[in-house]
Amino acid sequence: MKLEALVNTWLDQQGAPPLGDHIEEPSRLTQVREHNRKFFFDFVGRARPLLRAWCAKFQPDRHVASLIDADGEEDLRKRLDSIGVLDFRMLDDLSAVEWLQILNIWPVDMPHSLEPKDLGLSDEDVKDESVKAREAREERKREARMVAFNGKMLDPTEVDLFALSDELQQSLSVEVLGSSLGSSADLATVQRDDDPSKPPRKQNAGKKKGGRPRVPEEKTELIGRLGEMVVYRWLKRILGKQDIDSAWVSENGALITGRDGNDGLGYDFEVSYRNQIWQIEVKASVDDPQSFEIGETEVRAARLAARARSGIQYKIAYVSHVAEPAQTKIEMLPNPMTDEGAHVLELRGEGIRYGFERR
């Protein structure tokens, strides 16, 4: 009996029932996980404002970002999942708080409760911190979507596109504005995987650990608009006899010219050059990644243009350093769906992403 008492003492210290106690049959794994998945996000939604308000009132120097920051919900869920918390028992408020305390997220001195009165909080305490959190969240979103341009930061939701277009015209170099449409970029030939002279490519080469961070849609759109504005100003300069306003067929063009635009065509400009129709798709970047991605409509347009006797030249206008107009460069790349394109454009990654190297 002495041994049994020792075992029961140890079990009690671990929070387990004593020997001989009836233990309910454990729920099925799928039921437990489904309950805990739904419960977790509900719990975080209720706990976050209380945790934020309690820390602000009693431990203002403490920062519990993984629960206070809404963007950290999924990372927190993965942490709990990685140590099996979501697999064995259905969580409730008390057990969830205890696990968060184990992870050093729930302050040790904070009561294990989601009742404001138990936490020493008033309704105003919670409301004030919720307002501050919302303002901070909006500011983080604003900072994330900002685009550097010509020595200043632009908010895509507030930018004056007409003023931006005029500024581009004044800032672009004479070299860029005077370059010929028919001048192709000087690209190195792609070395294929079956080429014995090609050095082995490093695994994960060119990829950052954890993948590329998600870029706000507003930021991506403004960078794309800047690129198209650069090409617009360039085409107006070198093809002065053509109506480049009509040639700018994308929806970005409609924002400047007031004409109808269509992003489903697979290209941004359509001009006449050397007795052929040139369909130009613009790919812009704030730096110079020497790569670009093409979507489904662009693949379709490129394939149609690549057909024999199509009379259409499909080109990629690669615009680098669009954030610094004085350094901006336009390079004309071949149709990725042609033999010419296959010689200098390398398919990279899981999607339709091409890369190239200069000589």
Task: Reconstruct the topology from this structure.
Blueprint: H1 2-13, H2 29-58, H3 65-68, H4 73-82, H5 93-102, H6 123-145, E1 147-149, E2 152-154, H7 161-171, H8 174-178, H9 217-238, H10 244-247, H11 251-257, E3 269-273, E4 276-284, E5 291-293, H12 296-306, E6 312-320, E7 329-333, H13 339-344, E8 346-348, E9 353-355
Parallel strand pairs: 4-6
Antiparallel strand pairs: 1-2, 3-4, 5-9, 6-7, 8-9
What does this structure look like?
By secondary structure, the chain is an alpha+beta fold. Helices cover 43% and strands 12% of the residues. The protein is built from 13 helices and nine strands. The protein has a four-stranded mixed beta sheet. A three-stranded antiparallel beta sheet has the order 5-9-8. Strands 1-2 form a two-stranded antiparallel sheet. Strand 3 and strand 4 form a beta hairpin. Helix 2 crosses helix 6 (123-145) and helix 7 packs across helix 9 (217-238). The chain is elongated, with a radius of gyration of 29 Å. It starts with a helix and ends with a strand. The model is unreliable at 203-210 (pLDDT under 50).
